[in-house]
Amino acid sequence: MNPLSHALSRNENNFGLVRLLAAIAVVYGYSYLLQQPDGSADWVQSALGFDGLIALGIYAFFLLSGMLVTASFDRQRSAPRFAVLRIARIWPAVAVGSLVTVLVIGPLFTTLPLREYFASGVTWANLDNFSTLVLNGSWVVPGVFEHNRWLNEVSAPLWTLPLAVRCYLIVLFTGLVGLLSSRWGVVLAAALGLAAFVLRVHLVPHLHLELRDFSAKTPGYSFWPEPFFFIGMLLYGWREDIELHGLAALGLVMVFLVFRDTAAAQPLFYLAFVYGVLWIGTTPLLRRFTPRNDYSYGIYLYGFMMQQCAASLAPRLSHQTATLVAAPFILLCAVLSWRFVERPVLVWCHRRLARTPRAVGAAIADSAAR
After folding, report:
1. What percent of the residues of the chain are helix, what percent strand, and what percent coil, each to the nearest 5?
2. What mean pLDDT comes out for the span 123-141?
């Protein structure tokens, strides 16, 4: 017996391990794209034919976020507390990352004279964290990585942060109207989120709605991250009825393999993927491997940046060698981000917002979900 509700209510889970594995998958997936072609390709993409390591890592992040962010609002029952904790979780690390980009990576790798670099408005525009988190999610610094295979971009994974923020707003809105306190309410909340995903709102040149163009997908992805967030919301709402078993996870994988050459392959894979992520995140068999500290966000933010540095200095390294070269720097940045930025901010917020005293470790775990 491995109920999802048990893992969510008692914090006896491996979600930190899942996030770490997802971040590593994103970093390793990008290694195939950043170095000069060496004849190898993303083995997951090659095996599946529709999604690779990057996509699956991001889907896993959004799936867990859907569950844990919904759980966070349900526990808080306070819009201001929820908003403060969400901001505390995602913004400080981005703010420091933008400073590292402008003040460290830029001066070290720009091809422009430093006087011209620091005089450019494009340089300082990267400190606009509102745009990063809400609008375009991009850091582009003048003269930096302009000869790399992936031109100019300092941290490509940032594009998912505005999507996550919009999902958080859906949780906030549906929580405010009382939909997250019952299982059928959560179903309606997820349906509203899906409707917001399908209907695109445009403010310029005038307010109007249009259907999403489902033929337009991010390169390298055959699906979208947001639906996995809404699936996570549903899973939280029905957590009392969901039992997770290793044999069931194996069975779903076998069903996918049997039908992998049919039109049903992709939905069957996603079903097995969601169930597999939940099983990995809840099975006691993996509890010993769950890290005590959450370095996943730092790895996600700084991984691409350090890989671009390696690609700029040695573009012809194989993707494995380049990843090994970048890995210590990625880990160092992630550790520093967690110990001196993310964790202190979370501790400070919980101490100011907590209604009753409770263990700081539990408070941090509650907010660590993205």
Report:
1. 70, 5, 25
2. 92
Q: Alpha-carbon distance 141 to 132, whole Å?
A: 13
The residue behind tokens 């799936």 is 63
Question: Which residue in this structure is represented by tokens 């939280």?
Answer: 236
d(C-alpha 19, C-alpha 90), whole Å: 15
Q: 155-193, pLDDT tens digit by residue? A: 999 999 999 999 999 999 999 999 999 999 999 999 999
Per-residue tokens: 159: 């594009």
Region class of 105: left (phi > 0), else alpha (psi between -120 and 50), else beta: alpha
- Which pLDDT band, with edges at 50, 70 and 90, does 362 fall under? very low
Compute, in degrees rounded to 10, the torsion defined by CA atoms 261, 266, 268, 271.
160
How many domains does the structure of the chain reveal? 1
Domain of 318 in residue numbering reads as 4-367
Write down the number of H helices and E strands in the chain. Answer: 18, 2
Residue 100: both structure tokens together: 């590292």
Q: Are the beta carbons of 241 and 27 closer than 8 angstroms?
A: no
Instruction: For residues 369 and 8, give the distance between their C-alpha atoms in angstroms, rounded to a whole number.
Output: 12
Greatest Cα pair distance in the chain: 64
Mean pLDDT of 288-316: 96
Q: What is the pLDDT of residue 136?
A: 81
Locate 348 and state its tokens: 């400070």
- Record the tokens describing residue 304, joined without a space: 């691409």
Query: For the residues 282-306, what does the mean pLDDT come to?
Result: 96
